[in-house]
Design goal:
The protein has 220 residues and is an all-alpha fold. It is 72% helix and 0% strand.
Length: 220
């Protein structure tokens, strides 16, 4: 009799014992052994996690870098006539970064290891362009925002081709931010960015740097 009861008892205990999952997974109050999914490789809305990792990590890095660029410009031109214009654009970039900080936590995405470098490089680029004067700062804005807008457009096309319903939340965020980056681009043109000496050379150099930053931040 004992030999027959023991397996059944072990089975009952296993069925009642809560499963142990990774960090952050908890049973719902009063739900017994019911747990949220244990897998950390599936995003909250069912998206493949590597895709989310790449998109959120690089966009977070881009918005972080943009904030540092505007910080550098404000350090030089904050008290000039163009200061309020730069501040307005910077405020929007702060909101972009705040949203991607939230998405990083929500989807458990690690930031790029290059953030300390972008911290310094972004500020140096912003301050350096501002030392060329108002037009130089606006030329930098045009170059950077054009690169970011193009990058966001590429992401939008990719997500729509994949599954626009699954990627609905990210698409809404990226589309809104793309439109605001394009607005910054247009503001730069309105403030004589193209009148900067060696504008084409400066713009090309900055955009090459942006492409390198995007490539690296997606991967490390």
């Amino acid at each position: 009799m004992a030999a027959a009861v023991a397996p059944a008892l072990r089975c009952s205990l296993l069925q009642r014992r809560p499963l142990r999952c990774g960090p952050g997974v908890r049973a719902a109050p009063g739900a017994g052994a019911a747990l949220r999914p244990c897998s950390s490789r599936v995003a909250q809305d069912g998206l493949p996690q590597p895709v989310i990792d790449r998109i959120i990590r690089v966009d977070h890095a881009g918005e972080y870098g943009a904030n540092r660029i505007y910080a550098g410009q404000m350090a030089v031109l904050g008290r000039s006539s163009v200061g309020p214009v730069i501040q307005q654009m910077w405020n929007q970039e702060k909101n972009h970064l705040k949203k991607f900080n939230e998405l990083m936590v929500a989807y458990r995405v690690r930031p790029t290891v290059l953030l300390p470098f972008w911290n310094v490089a972004g500020f140096v680029l912003g301050a350096g362009s501002a030392l060329l004067g108002k037009k130089g700062a606006m030329a930098c804005t045009v170059a950077v925002e054009e690169s970011i807008s193009e990058h966001y457009n590429n992401q939008i096309r990719t997500l729509i081709e994949e599954d626009p319903e699954k990627y609905k939340e990210l698409l809404q965020v990226i589309k809104q931010f793309r439109d605001e980056e394009q607005e910054h681009h247009d503001i730069g043109l309105e403030h004589d960015a193209e009148a900067t000496p060696a504008y084409s050379v400066l713009k090309t150099a900055i955009q090459l740097g942006c492409k390198a930053a995007i490539f690296l931040s997606e991967r490390i």
